[in-house]
Amino acid sequence: MNGISKRFxxxxxxxxxxxxxRRGEVHAICGENGAGKSTLxxxxxxxxxxxxxxxxxxxxxxxxxxxxxxxxxxxxxxxQELALVEDLSVAANxxxxxxxxxxxxxxxxxxxxxxxxxxxxxxxxxxxPQERTGNLRVGDQQLVEIxxxxxxxxxxxxxxxxxxxxxxxxxxxxxxxxARLVEGGATILYISHKMEEVFRLADxxxxxxxxxxxxxxxxxxxSPREVTAWxxxxxxxxxxxxxPRHAGKKLLxxxxxxxxxxxxxxxxxxxxxxLNLHAGEILGIAGLxxxxxxxxxxxxxxxxxPTWTGTIRLHGKPVRFSHPRExxxxxxxxxxxxxxRLGLFPDLDVAGNVSLxxxxxxxxxxxxxxxxxxxxVAGPVRATGVKTPGLHAAITGLSGGNQQKCIISRWLLTNPxxxxxxxxxxxxxxxxxxxxxxxxxxxxxxxxxxxLTSSELPELLxxxxxxxxxxxxxxxxxxxxxxxxxxxxxxxxxxG
Amino acid sequence: xxxxxxxxxxxxxxxxxxxxTIFGLRRGEWALVVAIxxxxxxxxxxxxxxxxxxxPLECLRDIARNTALLGIFAxxxxxxxxxxxxxxxxxxxxxxxxxxCATTMLALAPAQMMGFKPVGPLVVALAVAASLLTxxxxxxxxxxxxxxxxxxxxxxxxxTLVGLRSFARALCESTTSAFTPTKSATINVADPLFKTIxxxxxxxxxxxxxxxxxxxxxxxxxxxxxxxxxxGGNEQAARLAGIRTENVKWFAYCFGAxxxxxxxxxYVANESVAAPVNQGRGHELNAIAAAVVGGCSLAGGVGTVPxxxxxxxxLRVVIDAVSKLIKTGADVYEGLIxxxxxxxxxxxxxxxxxxSGGRHLLPGRLGLCxxxxxxxxxxxxxxxxxxxxxxxxxxxxxxxLLGLLRVWESRRTA
Lengths: 496, 414
What we know:
The structure holds two protein chains of two kinds. Chain A is built from 17 helices and 22 strands. Chain A is an alpha/beta fold. Chain A has a six-stranded mixed sheet, sandwiched between helices. A six-stranded mixed sheet of chain A has the order 16-19-20-13-21-22, with helices on both faces. A four-stranded antiparallel sheet of chain A has the order 2-1-4-5, covered by helices on one side. Chain B has helices at residues 27-46, 51-54, 56-82, 90-108, 110-114, 121-148, 153-179, 192-199, 202-221, 223-233, 235-240, 245-271, 283-293, 305-325, 334-349, 351-356, 364-386, 388-413, and strands at 187-188, 273-274. Chain B is globular and about 75 Å long.
């Protein structure tokens, strides 16, 4: 891989990355969320095309227009989100798109199942090839993906955080499988941020940060601590929020919150989470993807289903919201993680998106008054600094940062005391981020209690007064502002 | 780009509208107005009897009645579709509503009903109330199946589509066998109130207009209307914004079923009979077609009342035009017309996208096979209505035109 760049609107996901992978090695690629690992792998497997740079496989330049080209070149990828058709049998998934044909060009299930069984024997997998794939546990589904890679006789197998959903025993089995693949002459690209695993498996380690290549080293020549430092080692933007905020009275108290997850081997999404939030304070929640940040906020907001146990106290009184509306009425607001999927209404204009939760305030008699709605909306839109060509402009025409400000405006209109922000700056460019930071800081100083999750540590270190670290649904660390460091948080977050 | 625009948000007065409207109508809706005028004009000219010029009032009355009847439950379909759902049961709801009305009257005043005598306003009022109440109950059933049992709306209303008609027939037969000497699948309704409605086209038209105005107010000026749009646009986000999505859906499906129930009463009046086997059969698709032609998106969140009203008018005008041009048996072609109008209207609304996005209408092998398919369809229809030679000519013309389109498309990308 030579000088690979990939740009998305507003973000440079990869910036001139060059990595050389040797035949027959296990090459680990490490980096924080958003460092560009997954983008790189998607380019390698033909899902994305690079804007710049070239891919060389065995010395020859290749260009992949789609995953099938990559597969033809001997590259198989096992995605973080599994890409299986749940309603088809295991064997049908392994051979999807390359079905074996028998007499009369009919599908030859028997041959595929036999081949599948052979592959599964190699992988120590006890699953019947006729089983419906959706009935399999995640660990076994992953083995189906690996069997697919094996059946392609891929010379390069890319694994994108394969153990994130596995139990210990399944992880151990995966490690044995990897050893076996390498014995068979395959090259493995292994993406992970679990240091322990990386150091057990990899021959060489490449670290990416902010879309750039930091270094590639032999495992023997480095240490987990050093790699973690490379992963996070960047200037922290400390933009004058340092003058201390003054925490007021206690707003929210959560004690041993547990959210079960019956269909997962771990059994829980959240276990025994306790925290406090005061007025005028920003509580940061750090954690890797899947650590339970979103689940925590949704449970607090009454949107996570009724199965949780533990106590949530608001102003000292225990509450149990069964619908976001109740949380909203009690003075809570949630700015959701995935703006497009969970926050925006693409068919409503800017005013409609902002006024949605408080349209009652614009009623004149039974009817919504257009002018009252505009008046209502104009206040917070101005206060949050939304840049829009007009209140009735299409929300989809605004930039990500301005859309996010609209959603924050929506919730400010409900006069909340507690603002839950779930990764509010994801997919937003740097300038807009700074504006959002200033806005969040100001709201907090005006007396709001803010819980902020982020996949970017510098963001938490800039904004939060205290930081709680989640790893696999448990609290693995709590830091006051002065004692928090990226390395310390990262260590706690990868403790799982 | 947005960042270079000065913060104009502080002055909401000159705010540009999201979708530009001219005299309150959007571009697609103006296109419908033009299409309606064109269709009327063309029919008037081509029709051998020139009935649009010679008997304008009678023709207008016909179209107005049919449009009002279709429009009433098309408005219901619009609300359901905007809320992101679909109601396939409207036709059966029409049949059930008529049956409930007639059986109520039969049960309350059997002697008068059998003697074709007036049953009195109180009985009629009770019967109408019972029908509308049935609409509410059916809507509640739909909402329960969809939000609590979690059936997809398509499945839930497909079940009631088949189920309600059968239920209506059973009800009709058991009521007639209980109150009259013979079991029957139809009940004649001869009350003068219903006759007045039949003879006076302004009543259904007035009801339609009032209902359209109420629906328009609901969708554009009430909190509930905004929540309907939000629900259809992004259900998960609506829930997370604190909207009780189940209740909004409940309203939408009740509105859909109750408008169908109202239409059912007019069908009974029109035909002087409640006939659960055939009344309103297939009409749910006409309602959905009117909404879609009027600009509703089946994905939810998008749609307007003026659009649906114009869509209903356009559908009825085209159907009427065909019946004027084909003297006998034009009703055979009603389904065909609805189908063709929907396809053409929706294709038309995407023309800009097709042209600018470089999308092909006839791509690859599929496009190649589509050409003779469309030619056969066109040729077949024309030869059945206008004779064999005209059919051949139409088929040949279709092949030629589509062939040229295909050549042009492949040239453009090459």
